[in-house]
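Sample intake sheet
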Amino acid sequence: MKRQIKVAAVQFSPQSYAVEANLEHAMNLARKALASGAKIVLLPELFDSGYCTEDRDKEFGIDLSDPTQPTIAGLKALAGEYKAYLIAGSIEQKQGALFNSVYIVGERGVVGTYQKVYLWGDEKQRFSRGQGYPVFELPLEGLTLKVGLQICYEVGFSEGSRFLALQGAELLCFCAAFSKIRSYAWDLGGQARALENGLFVLAANRCGSEISKLTHKELTFCGHSKIVNPKGEIVEQLDDQEGVLVGVLDLDAIKAQRQNIPYLRDLDLELNQKTLKNIQCVNLS
């Protein structure tokens, strides 16, 4: 019996502060994917608050453990209706700190959370840094899928994806607000992470634009949400406009590709650990 699962990425343009409108729009788009049979639907980074809320981040931080919180309650209801999972990015408020987080919502509520480790630019002043790379096991239609989560800028940090792959991840989900001016990094990074780890990448990037509350400059986002197979090939991709991308993952392709090019099998972890202890880093600033 083939191990297959239908997944989807939602691409739209969240607006600053407009939580209610952003949530409603995202859920309407997600519903289209769920109605087509998708069992995992990925939303962009900070999809509910918008990306540029620098002056009001604390106001929009949410407690992911609170099932009555509107974003969580809305996603939970939708997940329950379709017996599926939604993966979304929001500002997380936890123990007095704010994190740029992505989380998995099923019919029982939040079942997994990842906090962004590599913060981009001014995010270092906005958010605390995550401290780990958990892998989550999702039961789906007679199979269990191992999922790793990453956020935006982290598509360029191969180490995070490799840590997740070494823990058994079969699908890496990248939720992002990746800029148009650096779209080349987004486009190449997703393919590289899939190829070098022999797994699927599902990437949901936002589109449209927002005004930075710090620099007062317009930020334009590139879209290009995509599904990449274990060979590093883009099998589905959107342009820079709003849309919903749906595709079927043939999970048997993971084992086949890892046998064809055995990067993970031949990785010398012992040598890497020794090198990290002894390496003399130059000034890279």
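Comment: The chain has a mean pLDDT of 97. The radius of gyration is 18 Å.
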